[in-house]
Amino acid sequence: MATLKYSRQRESIKEYLNSTCEHPTADAVYLHVKQEYPNISLGTVYRNLNLLADIGEALKITTPYGGDRFDGHTHPHYHFCCTTCGRVIDLDLEQLQCVNKEAGRNFDGIIESHSMMFYGTCGECMRKHS
Predict the structure, then answer these.
(1) What is the pTM of this model?
(2) Could you read off the pLDDT tens digit of each residue along the chain, which spans 130 residues?
(3) CA–CA separation, 107 vs 71, rounded Å?
(4) What backbone torsions phi and psi does residue 120 show, to the nearest 5 degrees?
């Protein structure tokens, strides 16, 4: 792969992803980065987010509620998606290596990793509706 040219805008996107636990959409990233770079386009933000995900410097999290979410924390971890508000939250749960072993039991190949999304109602939504 060719060397990636440095971009101040891409670096700003990456810094924002690394500084938040909110798992923002591309639109949310755009609104944040636009404060520092008023001329940045939404297309530039989308391209850079996808590039960061492709090169392993961000995670792209697809949710059933529309709009991919992005995470600057690329270490293996699990996510929870609220079925009420659509928010994505990191779960404090150790990586379950037994899942790889169990999945590989009847699989002709080597399973190296996995990703898992949990679904339900977040505490904030539960408090609002009670």
Answers:
(1) 0.87
(2) 567 888 999 999 999 999 999 999 999 999 999 999 999 999 999 999 999 999 999 999 999 877 899 999 999 899 999 999 999 999 988 878 888 889 999 899 998 888 899 999 999 999 999 8
(3) 30
(4) 170, -155
